[in-house]
Amino acid sequence: MTSxxxxxxxxxxxxxxxxxxxxxxxxxxMLLLYVGGVELGNGMAINVKVTATAHSVADMVxxxxxxxxAQMQNILGASAAILAPYATTGSSGxxxxxxxxxxxxxxxxxxxxxxxxxxxxxxxFGAGRTSxxxxxxxxxxxxxxxxxGTAGNANNPNSQNDNVSFIVGEATYAYTPNLGYTVSGTVTxxxxxxxxPRCSTNSPANSGGPAYYDIKYPVATNCTCIQHLQQKTC
Length: 234
Hints:
Blueprint: H1 2-13, H2 18-62, E1 64-66, H3 69-80, E2 97-106, E3 112-120, E4 125-127, E5 165-175, H4 181-184, E6 187-195, E7 200-201, E8 212-213, E9 223-224, H5 225-231
Helix pairs in contact: 2-3
C-alpha cells in the first residue's frame, strides 16, 4: 500500500514532458490560426483586385463616346488582367472570373433602361446582362440612392437624374481556399462601380430627351473624349 501511494505521489509531482504535452494541446489551434490567416489574407487580396477590376472597366469605358467591338474586348481583357497573379481559370479549365460593363439610361421620368452590356469570363467574350433584374449569374442592379432617378424619389430633387446615362462595371471571382475548402467551400467575391460618361453626345435612340452623356456600342469606329472634344475628329 505504501509503495502504491508513493508511486501515485511521484506521478503527481512529476513534471517531465510537460512542455511536450502542452504543445500537443496547443498545436491544433496554432495550425488553425495559421491556415485561417493565410486563407483570409489571400481572400482579402483578391477582393481588393476584384474592386479594382470593377472600377477600371467602368473608368476606361467612360473615357469614350463610342466603342467598337474590338475596343470593348480590349478593355474587358485589360481589366481582367488586374487580377494577376491570381488565376482566372480553375484546374479543370472552368472560368473563375466574370467582368461585365453595362450602360444604363434614365428617361425624362427617371425610368431606367439597359442600353447594352458586355462580359468577359477570362476565356471568351459575350453578351452580359439581359435586364436590370436578376438574370443568369447576375443579381439585380441595386442603384445607389444618389443615382435613383425614379419620379418622386426624395433622393432625386429637381429631376437631376432624369435624362442621364451611367456606366456600371461589375466583377466577380470564385475564390476556393486551398486549405479551407471543406470548411467554407467556394466563396464568390463581387463588387460593382458606377461612373458617369465623361463626354456629352447624342442621347440613345429610345430617348425623347436632349443630348446628354452617352456611349454608343457597337459602332464601326472608336472615338475617345479627346478626339471628340479637342481634335473634333469624330
